[in-house]
């Protein structure tokens, strides 16, 4: 004789829909995901700083540093492109002069550019009189100040050279988000700051005479 719980189970089974569907044929997706572009990473130091740059999988990297020297390291693409929407997450914890920035170079003309997303308040990037404020834009939820300065006989992607630096400096700083790169290149062009052929474009951490730690994942 069935026990009470078994009777309840049998009643439940009899009222539940059976949902018996035939096995699905195996199909290949119509639009298979495109393979990601190869990640590019760059790391430069004047060797005066003590820096440990660790290249992680995919878009990840981490860096810890201290000492008096200058370094810049990051992950992204080569060549870069003005149509990129750059998305990244992470933590940025500097003590002293350091930037978290979209960073890259163009050639003809040779330009070193920065879209500064975060920085330590002890050193505001290219603030007058170090740099010149030439314009501004609003993009991705914040005002950005456009600044420029010349570098004379400094290290560059083509060796020691004299070249212009362009900066967009975000007012509402942040350590993760999405940057519409094209808005910056358009704003720079509008104030007469020419850029050239894209070289690399990365999400970089730069430090100079400071210490800190950054863990970044570019998506
Ligand atoms: C930072 O300084 C300490 C000594 O104070 C040293 O042990 C360490 O290796 C340095 N470098 C980094 C990247 O943390
Ligand atoms: C932004 O640029 C416009 C146009 O050049 C200028 O009139 C305005 O004063 C600038 N705003 C700030 C806050 O710098
Ligand atoms: C790094 O800091 C030193 C000393 O504060 C300064 O002379 C140098 O110009 C800085 N380098 C960069 C790339 O800003
Ligand atoms: C480096 O930073 C320290 C502490 O922040 C500061 O006292 C020193 O003047 C800086 N060095 C240079 C060359 O600016």
From TrEMBL:
Active site: 112, 206
Keywords of this entry: Carbohydrate metabolism, Glycosidase, Hydrolase, Polysaccharide degradation, Signal, Xylan degradation
InterPro entries assigned: ConA-like_dom_sf, GH11/12, GH11_AS_1, GH11_dom, Glyco_hydro_11
EC number(s) per entry: 3.2.1.8
Pathway: Glycan degradation; xylan degradation
Single biological process term from Gene Ontology: xylan catabolic process
Domain GH11: 27-219
Pfam families according to UniProt: Glyco_hydro_11 (PF00457)
Catalytic activity field: Endohydrolysis of (1->4)-beta-D-xylosidic linkages in xylans
GO molecular function: endo-1,4-beta-xylanase activity
PROSITE patterns (UniProt xref): GH11_1 (PS00776), GH11_3 (PS51761)
Position of the signal peptide: 1-20
PANTHER family assigned: ENDO-1,4-BETA-XYLANASE A-RELATED
Protein family according to the UniProt entry: Belongs to the glycosyl hydrolase 11 (cellulase G) family.
This protein's name: Endo-1,4-beta-xylanase
Source organism of the structure: Massarina eburnea CBS 473.64
Source lineage: Eukaryota, Fungi, Dikarya, Ascomycota, Pezizomycotina
């Amino acid at each position: 004789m069935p026990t009470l719980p078994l009777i309840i189970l049998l009643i439940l089974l009899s009222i539940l829909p059976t949902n018996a569907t035939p096995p699905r044929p195996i199909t290949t997706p119509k639009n298979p995901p495109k393979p990601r572009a190869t990640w590019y990473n760059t790391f430069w130091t004047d060797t005066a700083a003590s820096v440990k740059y660790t290249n992680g999988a995919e878009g990840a990297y981490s860096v810890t540093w201290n000492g008096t020297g200058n370094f810049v390291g990051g992950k992204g693409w080569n060549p870069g492109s003005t149509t990129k929407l750059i998305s990244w997450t992470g933590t940025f914890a500097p003590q002293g002069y350091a930037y978290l920035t979209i960073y890259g170079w163009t050639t003809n003309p040779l330009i070193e550019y920065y879209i500064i997303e975060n920085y330590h308040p002890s050193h505001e990037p290219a603030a007058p009189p170090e740099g010149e404020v030439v314009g501004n834009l609003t993009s991705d939820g914040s005002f950005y100040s456009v600044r420029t300065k010349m570098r004379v006989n400094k290290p560059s992607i083509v060796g020691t050279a004299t070249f212009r630096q362009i900066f967009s400096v975000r007012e509402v700083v942040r350590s993760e988000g999405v940057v519409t790169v094209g808005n910056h290149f358009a704003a720079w062009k509008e104030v007469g700051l020419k850029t050239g052929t894209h070289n690399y474009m990365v999400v970089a951490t730069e430090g100079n005479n400071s210490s800190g730690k950054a863990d970044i994942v570019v998506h």
